[in-house]
Design goal:
Elements lengths: L20 E12 L10 E8 L2 E8 L1 H5 L5 E12 L2 E5 L5 E4 L26
Parallel strand pairs: 3-5
Antiparallel strand pairs: 1-2, 1-4, 2-3, 4-5, 4-6
Amino acid sequence: MADQKKQVTKVNQLRPLDTGLNLTVKVVSAKMVAQRGRNQGRFSECLVGDETGIIIFSARNDQVDLAKEGNTLVLSNAKIDMFKGSMRLAVDRSGRVEVGVAASFSVDESNNLSLIEFERIDVVV
């Protein structure tokens, strides 16, 4: 089972509330965000992407050290969170963030999925 190849998702295939995602992305930029309220640890918003597009990655605590500009990250069991109607890529406790080998692809910065605003529609049957 350990030899099974995980299906790798491309950034342009991401959809709201997706879970169980495996991606290889390159960090384009990263900035620390000040947390308000109680002490919730370190938090950084990073622009990450691959050859199909870019998205904001919410890095928390130890993930902040790995998500440095220029690093290639291998995200396992990632998910899409919604924040103010837009998508954010995140990895919680059940997932894993690792620094991978340098990416051989160039990032397509013209397709930013975090700029797409989604609206929730409830259908009553």
